């Protein structure tokens, strides 16, 4: 099959092309260059001084890894100069990231988790970058506001992730299905490798950190028992348990193999009653991807993409994956009321 790169694929296969095709294509190309630069550093980790901590603590209260900071700086530097963005928000930064004076602004808002799964960096386990794109709400000649950024996930015009693993792979949706592109280092291009990804209607894997069982409510405990119970789960066999601790990798396996990933609310930290994952930079983009692949994503009961955000860094419980399993979980949570 002749190689197809991202731009070519967009032009050939996107029914609903976002308005101002040139701006969007340029945004995507700058994102792709950022992923290539981050991938180069990730694959050298261990050889150059990018392992370990910076000594800083971010807005999430997490210790910042050197690769968190590196990836964040690459994305902020490149995307704020792309001329197509009016505002950005990063999981690592407290407030909205403005476009530097003198650089043109554009019609798009970019939200990202520059490096997801950073606790796995030293162990050389898959990590990734997650991104989400909205169109600005304010008029182009107006200053951007928090309302341009705090939009419900259903308003996304594009979303996806780049997975830095045995190969570097970008998974992208622009509202016309989900497509996977694998970086071919010999030509330096992301080439179409997984056209039109669809999640299996049901799977055989559940993914959750069972170390926190003590902190779960009764509904979540019943959910996990359901997947372990060969009779109860209707498949005659227990589901396999897989948990890597990198959302982007746990999600990618769920997308390709089917099944379910859960990061529920837990009572570990009274300051984080809604669990650990962030709505804007993690749950919304992956929920857009999974719905475009005919899967589902909820907070246990409610559709993630319908949640009206109130804070850049608000957390949300996430239940995401194949329709069969997400619906089963929803039934159990609804039963508990
Ligand atoms: P990040 O590295 O961007 O802060 O995200 C880490 C998240 C996510 O990748 C993963 O699913 C989750 O942390 C794992 O959390 P636990 O270690 O609490 O299971
Ligand atoms: Mn983090
Ligand atoms: Mn993350
Ligand atoms: Mn992160």
Protein described:
- It is a single chain.
- The chain has 337 residues and is of the alpha+beta class.
- It has eight helices and 14 strands.
- The strands form three sheets. The chain has a seven-stranded mixed sheet, sandwiched between helices. The chain has a five-stranded mixed sheet with strand order 11-10-12-14-13, with helices on both faces.
- Strand 10 (205-207), helix 5 and strand 11 (240-241) form a beta-alpha-beta unit.
- Helix 2 packs antiparallel against helix 3.
- The model has no long low-confidence stretch (mean pLDDT 93).
- Bound molecules: 2,5-anhydro-1,6-di-O-phosphono-D-glucitol and manganese (II) ion (MN) (3 copies).
- One manganese (II) ion (MN) binds next to strand 4.
- One manganese (II) ion binds at residues 60, 62, 118.
- Mg(2+) 1 binds at residues 91, 113, 115.
- It catalyses: beta-D-fructose 1,6-bisphosphate + H2O = beta-D-fructose 6-phosphate + phosphate.
């Amino acid at each position: 099959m002749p190689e197809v790169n991202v731009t070519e694929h967009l032009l050939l296969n996107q029914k609903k092309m976002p308005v101002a095709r040139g701006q969007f294509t340029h945004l995507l190309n700058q994102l792709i260059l950022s992923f290539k630069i981050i991938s180069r550093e990730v694959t050298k980790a261990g050889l150059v001084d990018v392992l370990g901590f910076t000594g800083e603590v971010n807005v999430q209260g997490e210790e910042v890894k050197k690769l968190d900071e590196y990836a964040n700086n690459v994305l902020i530097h490149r995307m704020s100069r792309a001329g197509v963005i009016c505002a950005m928000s990063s999981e690592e930064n407290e407030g909205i990231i403005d476009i530097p004076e003198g650089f043109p602004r554009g019609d798009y808002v970019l939200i990202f988790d520059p490096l997801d799964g950073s606790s796995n960096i030293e162990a050389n386990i898959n990590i990734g970058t997650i991104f989400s794109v909205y169109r600005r709400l304010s008029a182009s000649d107006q200053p951007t506001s928090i309302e341009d950024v705090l939009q419900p996930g259903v308003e996304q015009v594009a979303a996806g992730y780049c997975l830095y693993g045995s190969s570097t792979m970008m998974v992208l949706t622009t509202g016309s299905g989900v497509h996977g592109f694998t970086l071919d280092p010999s030509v330096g291009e992301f080439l179409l490798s997984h056209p039109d990804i669809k999640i299996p209607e049901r799977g055989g894997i559940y993914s959750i950190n069972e170390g926190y069982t003590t902190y779960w409510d009764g509904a979540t405990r019943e959910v996990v028992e359901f997947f372990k119970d060969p009779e109860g789960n209707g498949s005659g066999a227990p589901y396999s348990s897989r948990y890597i601790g990198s959302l982007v990798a746990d999600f990618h396996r769920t997308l390709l193999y089917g099944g379910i990933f859960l990061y529920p609310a837990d009572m570990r930290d009274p300051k984080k009653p809604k669990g650990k994952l962030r709505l804007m930079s993690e749950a919304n983009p992956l929920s857009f991807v999974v719905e475009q692949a005919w899967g589902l994503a909820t907070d246990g009961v409610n559709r993630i993409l319908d949640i009206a955000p109130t804070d850049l860094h608000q957390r949300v419980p996430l239940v995401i994956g194949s329709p069969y399993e997400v619906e089963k979980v929803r039934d159990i949570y609804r039963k508990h009321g």
